[in-house]
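Example record

The entry below shows one chain as it appears in the dataset: sequence first, then structure tokens.
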Amino acid sequence: MSKPAAKTMSPASWVALIVLSLVWGSSFLFGRIAVMEIPPLTLTLLRVGLAAITLNVLLLVMQSRVTHTPGLWRDFTVMGLLNNIIPFTLIFYGQQEIGAGLAAIVNAMTPIWTVLIAHLTTADERFSRGKAIGIFLGFYGVALLIGSAALAGLEASAWAQMAILGATISYGVASVFGRRFTDVPPIQTARGQLTTSTVLMLPLALFVERSWTLAMPSLGVWAAVVALAVLCTAFAYILFFRILAQAGATNVALVTFLIPPSAILMGVLFLGETLELRHAIGFALILAGLIAIDGRAAQTFTARRGVR
């Protein structure tokens, strides 16, 4: 039996990945704003709940009447736990204590976990020298891009750093588990996992944090919550599952390397921040890492040498 062909990124997938990085890059900002007034479990409930409502209404408008099997709803529940409940809550807990720079560095571990998990559990996303080099270059580029100012936050409490590290492991497992939804329309997968996440989070947030007793958040915080739910969750997951189906778990996890550059780019465009030399070098290293993991450039070079 021949080995399944490894998946690579098409130009359309690269464009979608960059858009996704911009959207998820902004989630760190919105999350930091919101968690200052809303505790983590309640914030996770609001994020998944509003996103689930958005997608269910959208499917009603589209008159989509797909009936899912109990087995598929079970898989949606597992995906919701791995891709929503665990990582969202852990990141919000971490963001109560540590800054966005350090959070981004820790969050960059996601592709490393994904590569390792995919290597152990799949036949077509095996570990290779190119992926190893790409992961190293990408992680080093992220660290250089964030800079020493962010590293100064390493004195933050250990539990906060471990919380975000735990979220990256959960994301890694979710990326591989999500491969089973290849034949399910992306919007259906996103709706399914967010709906089951809402059902699971509702009693947890209500009974642990007694959400009904909390003070009403400010208007700015509500705006951040809506942006988290509609833009960074509902829309982002439709895009995420589309890329996952087309390009595989390892490739879609590359979005983690693009999130810090996206955040800096938004700072330049909207806050008047300036790029330093280390930012340009960081971008170059991340780009080199993405090219190494994608593998097509190396294949083309090898093929041309073979022709000679």
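Notes for this example: The chain has 14 helices and no strands. Residues 11-307 form one domain.
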